[in-house]
Design brief:
Elements lengths: L1 H23 L5 H17 L3 H21 L2 H18 L3 H19 L5 H18 L5
Helix pairs in contact: 1-2, 2-4, 3-4, 3-5, 4-5, 4-6, 5-6
Length: 140
């Protein structure tokens, strides 16, 4: 009994931290946004969070879109990585497809922008390839 309660408490603590990181993606400070992206990258690559993300995918997708549009260099690169991990977590179902479809034009835009940093372009290329492989319904 107490072990299950302890596990539930840890789960809630993790979710609270993730919510905080997601809120920080909208901060005015680029440093705060980058730290939030790094924390999300770490969380998404170390634990399956599909239930938590399912309810918040639109919010997270919107925040990542802002980071890709308004961010520079490192922030764009991190946003591309987090997007790849989000797609992996969502899988090949309609949710993953929706995330990919909404951000695909932006990924292509950053990828083809010669003024974007090489790391941002590389990250967006990887995100585009991985998300396309996982979640694209259209074979073309």
């Amino acid at each position: 009994g107490s072990e299950a309660a302890s596990e539930q408490g840890q789960e809630e603590e993790v979710e609270d931290r993730l919510k905080e990181h997601m809120d920080n993606l909208l901060d005015k400070s680029a440093k705060v946004r980058q730290a939030a992206l790094q924390s999300l990258r770490q969380a998404l690559s170390s634990k399956t969070l599909s239930e938590f993300l399912l309810e918040r995918r639109l919010t997270l997708t919107d925040s990542l879109e802002k980071c890709l549009k308004k961010g520079k260099g490192e922030e764009q690169a991190l946003a591309g990585t987090v997007l790849t991990l989000l797609c992996l977590q969502m899988g090949s179902g309609p949710e993953g497809e929706e995330v990919f479809r909404s951000l695909k034009p932006l990924l292509v835009s950053v990828l083809t922008d010669i003024t974007a940093s090489p790391s941002a372009r590389q990250s967006c290329a990887t995100a585009l390839g991985m998300c396309c492989y996982i979640a694209a319904a259209d074979f073309e």
